[in-house]
Specification:
Blueprint lengths: L8 E5 L4 H12 L3 E6 L2 H14 L4 E5 L5 H10 L5 E4 L14 H10 L1 H18 L2 E6 L12 H20 L5 E8 L5 H11 L5 H8 L9 H12 L10 E4 L8
Parallel strand pairs: 1-2, 1-4, 2-3, 4-5, 5-6, 6-7
């Protein structure tokens, strides 16, 4: 399927690892020019160099902490003509309310929740002036059925789901689409770290048993999320806005 993304420009936050890196690779394969943002310059440079070695696209890196609203403004000012914004930065810690203190909670929400909101606010104004653009918020399935043991993440993700739906419900008036993606359990560095802490590593019998209980007997791949994001960012999805699409093979619906 031809996505007609060649020579589009995309901003991807949280682009140095995991899902963000996979999205960067997939959009580069489709011919998109990239602006990649994350906190660690060395990791971003490695992604940039790998993409440049494989694809004839421009890649600019922006090492910055997007929990700072001034950095958000600087990023958008550096690439105001971007056609696509993919918000992906941030991971909110797990734990019940007594396990996540105010400082950790605020720091996590400053990057993911308020970071997404600030990025949308700044980029939407630029897109509105041109009457075109797509915003894809990569959120997380924890917001669909919040639990007390992931209370900060579930509440933050639920807020971003509501935010994305509200923006996407009226953005067509400005020629813009706003959509969101909720990944479930995906094979990333974070998941491997979680496996080490919970079950002694990804090769442990306990972890393998947990994976076998998932739909299709496995976690999802970052590239599968990236393919969905690329489709949603493309003209093939031109009538999709104000919705949240879950990619977890049905796990959240199992109850």
């Amino acid at each position: 399927m031809q996505l007609n993304l060649r020579d589009k420009t995309a901003i991807i936050t949280g682009a140095s690892k995991g899902i963000g890196r996979a999205i960067a690779n997939t959009l580069a394969e489709e011919g998109c020019h990239l602006h990649l943002a994350a906190r660690t310059e060395a990791d971003l440079a490695a992604v940039r160099d790998a993409i440049r070695a494989k694809h004839q696209v421009s890649v600019t890196i922006h090492p910055m902490d997007l929990s700072d609203g001034e950095n958000v403004k600087r990023l958008i000012a550096a690439c105001p003509d971007a056609d696509i914004l993919v918000n992906n930065a941030g991971a909110i810690p797990g734990g019940a309310i007594d396990a996540v203190d105010e400082a950790r909670w605020r720091a996590a929400w400053d990057l993911k929740v308020f970071g997404y909101i600030n990025m949308c606010r700044e980029m939407y104004a630029q897109m509105k002036a041109r009457k075109r653009g797509v915003i894809v918020n990569v959120i997380g399935v924890g917001g669909e059925r919040p639990t007390a043991t992931y209370i900060a993440g579930g509440a933050g993700n639920a807020a971003l789901m509501a935010f994305s739906r509200a923006m996407g419900a009226v953005s067509a008036n400005d020629g813009i689409r706003v959509v969101a993606v909720n990944p479930g359990m995906i094979e990333t560095e974070r998941l491997r770290s979680l496996a080490q802490g919970m079950a002694g590593g990804v090769e442990s019998p306990a972890w393998q048993k947990m994976m076998a209980a998932l739909p299709f007997g496995r976690a999802g791949k970052p590239e599968e999320v990236a393919d969905l994001v690329a489709f949603l960012a493309s003209e093939r999805a031109s009538y999709i806005s104000g919705t949240v699409i879950t990619i977890d093979a049905g796990a959240a619906a199992r109850g």
